[in-house]
Amino acid sequence: MNIVLIGFRGSGKTTVGKILAERSGMDFIDTDKLIERKMGISIPEIVARYGWPIFRELEKKVILEVANTDFKIIAAGGGAVLDTENVQALKQNGFIIWLKADLKIISARLAKDDETTAQRPSLTGKGTLAEIEEVFRDREAFYAHSAMMEIDTTNLDAEMVAEKILTLL
Q: pTM of this prediction?
Protein backbone atom coordinates (compact mmCIF):
# COMPACT_ATOMS: atom_id res chain seq x y z
CA MET A 1 0.00 0.00 0.00
CA ASN A 2 1.12 3.56 -0.76
CA ILE A 3 0.69 6.71 1.29
CA VAL A 4 -0.55 9.48 -0.99
CA LEU A 5 -0.30 13.12 0.03
CA ILE A 6 -2.65 15.61 -1.61
CA GLY A 7 -3.22 19.29 -1.02
CA PHE A 8 -2.61 22.77 -2.28
CA ARG A 9 0.81 24.14 -3.22
CA GLY A 10 2.69 24.95 -0.04
CA SER A 11 0.72 22.53 2.14
CA GLY A 12 3.86 20.47 2.80
CA LYS A 13 3.39 17.46 0.54
CA THR A 14 6.97 17.25 -0.70
CA THR A 15 8.67 18.15 2.58
CA VAL A 16 6.48 15.81 4.64
CA GLY A 17 6.74 13.10 1.99
CA LYS A 18 10.53 13.10 2.14
CA ILE A 19 10.47 12.84 5.94
CA LEU A 20 7.93 10.00 5.81
CA ALA A 21 10.06 8.14 3.27
CA GLU A 22 13.17 8.53 5.39
CA ARG A 23 11.44 7.35 8.57
CA SER A 24 9.48 4.50 6.99
CA GLY A 25 12.11 3.20 4.58
CA MET A 26 9.64 3.62 1.72
CA ASP A 27 10.59 5.34 -1.54
CA PHE A 28 9.38 8.89 -2.19
CA ILE A 29 7.81 9.97 -5.48
CA ASP A 30 6.87 13.56 -6.26
CA THR A 31 4.64 13.36 -9.33
CA ASP A 32 5.52 16.90 -10.46
CA LYS A 33 9.25 16.12 -10.32
CA LEU A 34 8.66 12.85 -12.18
CA ILE A 35 6.85 14.73 -14.96
CA GLU A 36 9.77 17.16 -15.21
CA ARG A 37 12.29 14.29 -15.40
CA LYS A 38 10.30 12.51 -18.10
CA MET A 39 9.87 15.67 -20.17
CA GLY A 40 13.34 17.07 -19.54
CA ILE A 41 11.89 20.53 -18.83
CA SER A 42 10.24 22.29 -15.91
CA ILE A 43 6.50 22.45 -15.32
CA PRO A 44 6.37 26.18 -16.18
CA GLU A 45 8.07 25.34 -19.49
CA ILE A 46 5.62 22.50 -20.15
CA VAL A 47 2.67 24.80 -19.45
CA ALA A 48 4.14 27.65 -21.53
CA ARG A 49 4.86 25.40 -24.53
CA TYR A 50 1.92 23.02 -24.44
CA GLY A 51 -0.71 24.47 -22.08
CA TRP A 52 -2.45 23.16 -18.98
CA PRO A 53 -4.50 20.46 -20.79
CA ILE A 54 -1.33 18.73 -22.04
CA PHE A 55 0.24 19.04 -18.58
CA ARG A 56 -2.85 17.38 -17.06
CA GLU A 57 -2.56 14.53 -19.60
CA LEU A 58 1.10 14.02 -18.64
CA GLU A 59 0.12 14.16 -14.98
CA LYS A 60 -2.53 11.48 -15.51
CA LYS A 61 -0.01 9.15 -17.20
CA VAL A 62 2.41 9.59 -14.29
CA ILE A 63 -0.34 9.13 -11.67
CA LEU A 64 -1.56 5.92 -13.31
CA GLU A 65 2.03 4.67 -13.44
CA VAL A 66 2.89 5.40 -9.79
CA ALA A 67 -0.50 4.21 -8.55
CA ASN A 68 0.48 0.71 -9.68
CA THR A 69 3.56 0.66 -7.46
CA ASP A 70 3.66 -0.43 -3.84
CA PHE A 71 5.21 0.79 -0.59
CA LYS A 72 5.71 4.34 -1.85
CA ILE A 73 5.14 7.77 -0.40
CA ILE A 74 3.54 9.75 -3.24
CA ALA A 75 3.21 13.53 -3.29
CA ALA A 76 0.56 14.19 -5.93
CA GLY A 77 0.45 17.50 -7.75
CA GLY A 78 -2.01 20.00 -6.32
CA GLY A 79 -4.45 19.59 -9.20
CA ALA A 80 -4.22 15.81 -9.57
CA VAL A 81 -7.48 15.35 -7.65
CA LEU A 82 -9.41 17.26 -10.32
CA ASP A 83 -9.41 14.07 -12.41
CA THR A 84 -11.57 11.30 -10.97
CA GLU A 85 -9.51 8.66 -12.79
CA ASN A 86 -6.41 9.86 -10.94
CA VAL A 87 -8.19 9.64 -7.60
CA GLN A 88 -9.60 6.17 -8.32
CA ALA A 89 -6.18 4.89 -9.34
CA LEU A 90 -4.49 6.33 -6.24
CA LYS A 91 -7.19 4.91 -3.94
CA GLN A 92 -6.86 1.37 -5.34
CA ASN A 93 -3.49 0.89 -3.70
CA GLY A 94 -3.11 3.94 -1.53
CA PHE A 95 -4.21 5.74 1.58
CA ILE A 96 -4.89 9.37 0.62
CA ILE A 97 -4.10 12.09 3.15
CA TRP A 98 -5.09 15.71 2.56
CA LEU A 99 -2.54 18.13 4.00
CA LYS A 100 -4.43 21.37 4.49
CA ALA A 101 -3.52 24.73 5.99
CA ASP A 102 -4.88 28.22 6.47
CA LEU A 103 -4.65 30.03 3.13
CA LYS A 104 -2.67 32.94 4.59
CA ILE A 105 -0.14 30.43 5.95
CA ILE A 106 0.08 28.78 2.52
CA SER A 107 0.66 32.21 0.97
CA ALA A 108 3.44 32.95 3.48
CA ARG A 109 5.06 29.54 2.85
CA LEU A 110 4.98 30.07 -0.90
CA ALA A 111 6.48 33.56 -0.55
CA LYS A 112 9.44 32.06 1.37
CA ASP A 113 9.97 29.24 -1.14
CA ASP A 114 12.41 30.22 -3.92
CA GLU A 115 11.18 27.29 -6.00
CA THR A 116 7.63 28.67 -6.00
CA THR A 117 8.28 31.52 -8.38
CA ALA A 118 10.62 29.55 -10.60
CA GLN A 119 8.81 26.21 -10.70
CA ARG A 120 5.11 26.82 -10.10
CA PRO A 121 3.31 28.66 -12.88
CA SER A 122 0.37 30.88 -12.04
CA LEU A 123 -2.98 29.21 -12.45
CA THR A 124 -5.00 32.43 -12.71
CA GLY A 125 -2.57 35.29 -13.37
CA LYS A 126 -3.64 36.96 -10.10
CA GLY A 127 -1.58 37.91 -7.05
CA THR A 128 -0.50 35.11 -4.74
CA LEU A 129 -3.20 35.28 -2.04
CA ALA A 130 -6.01 36.08 -4.49
CA GLU A 131 -4.94 33.14 -6.66
CA ILE A 132 -4.70 30.81 -3.68
CA GLU A 133 -8.18 31.77 -2.50
CA GLU A 134 -9.75 31.34 -5.95
CA VAL A 135 -8.06 28.06 -6.83
CA PHE A 136 -8.60 26.61 -3.37
CA ARG A 137 -12.34 27.36 -3.57
CA ASP A 138 -12.40 25.47 -6.87
CA ARG A 139 -10.48 22.49 -5.45
CA GLU A 140 -11.60 22.19 -1.84
CA ALA A 141 -14.47 19.78 -2.55
CA PHE A 142 -12.16 17.61 -4.67
CA TYR A 143 -9.61 17.38 -1.84
CA ALA A 144 -12.33 16.58 0.70
CA HIS A 145 -13.93 13.94 -1.51
CA SER A 146 -10.59 12.29 -2.35
CA ALA A 147 -9.07 12.17 1.13
CA MET A 148 -9.35 9.30 3.56
CA MET A 149 -7.80 11.49 6.25
CA GLU A 150 -7.19 15.22 6.69
CA ILE A 151 -4.35 16.82 8.61
CA ASP A 152 -4.28 20.55 9.25
CA THR A 153 -0.65 21.63 8.90
CA THR A 154 -1.30 25.29 9.80
CA ASN A 155 0.42 25.18 13.19
CA LEU A 156 2.63 22.14 12.64
CA ASP A 157 6.09 21.86 11.15
CA ALA A 158 6.84 19.09 8.65
CA GLU A 159 8.42 16.83 11.28
CA MET A 160 5.29 17.05 13.42
CA VAL A 161 3.03 16.29 10.46
CA ALA A 162 5.11 13.25 9.50
CA GLU A 163 5.07 12.01 13.09
CA LYS A 164 1.30 12.44 13.25
CA ILE A 165 0.84 10.44 10.04
CA LEU A 166 3.11 7.63 11.22
CA THR A 167 1.29 7.50 14.56
CA LEU A 168 -2.16 7.38 12.94
CA LEU A 169 -1.21 4.70 10.42
A: 0.90
Instruction: Give the whole-angstrom CA distance, residue 103 versus residue 132.
Output: 7
pLDDT of residue 16: 98
Q: Is residue 90 domain-resident?
A: yes
Question: Could you give the strand order of the β-sheet that contains 27-30, starting from the edge strand earlier in sequence?
Answer: 27-30, 72-75, 2-6, 94-100, 149-152
Distance CA 16, CA 38 (A): 23
Burial class (CB in 10 A: 0-12, 13-18, 19+), 103: middle
Distances, alpha carbon 137 to alpha carbons 76, 94, 98, 132, 144, in Å? 19, 25, 15, 8, 12
Structural domains in the chain (count): 1
Q: Tell me: the pLDDT tens digits for 83-100?
A: 999 999 999 999 999 999
